[in-house]
Predict the 3D structure of the following.
Amino acid sequence: MHIDIISIQPGLLESPFQHSIMKRASDKGLLSIAIHDLRPFGLGKYKQIDDYQYGGGAGMVMMCEPLSNCIESLQQEKKYDEVIYMTPDGGTLNQSMANQLSLSQSLLIICGHYKGIDQRIRDMYVTKEISIGDYVLSGGELAAAVLVDSIGRLLPGVLNDGSSALSDSFQDNLLAPPVYTRPAEFKGAKVPDILLSGHEAKIDAWRYEQSIERTKRLRPDLLGE
Ligand code: 6GU
């Protein structure tokens, strides 16, 4: 998969993809990410990219021309499955969205700032608007990093154990069961016997029960309750 990201703060996106699973994904050639600085597409001597909003009100709006020129120059090189705009008024990211997007060949992600981008850019180019939750960030970059991480780890071959992404919380609308590693006893607290039993079917059943119990207790909304 290839992901292009348009940003006016490209520095914010440098580090997140250079570690751990995201790094492995790119080292293995499964995911390539290119960050595109919007600034060179800005207008005039000062490379202006934002302006006051029509109708008045506080806050700047990202202008049409720089975004349009940047998007169109990228679209000349590539056809995108989705052009995604990161915005607090988008649909909230969830696992099923991440699953769907992980089937894409190529994505273009636009990060907004200030009061957002001119509505006409949304109308003309954007095919999907995504938020990562009901709170406001100062820009779309961190949200884009979250989105790309949630997608990248689902690409076949990225995780060492291919089955592991399937047993994550939310993958079946259930929270994951508790997990333990050595030692078998820590400060008097023991690992549940069943996990030491070697009895695979019983362990699976226990984990499933635990998932249900945890979900009921912590996130009943996931069970429609
Ligand atoms: Cl995608 N952008 C911004 N600026 N704030 C957010 C967000 C996105 N998702 C939640 N808050």
Summary: The helical segments are 20-27, 64-77, 95-101, 119-125, 141-152, 193-196, 200-218. Residues 169-223 form a domain with the Trp Operon Repressor; Chain A fold (CATH 1.10.1270.20). The chain has two domains: 2-152, 169-223.
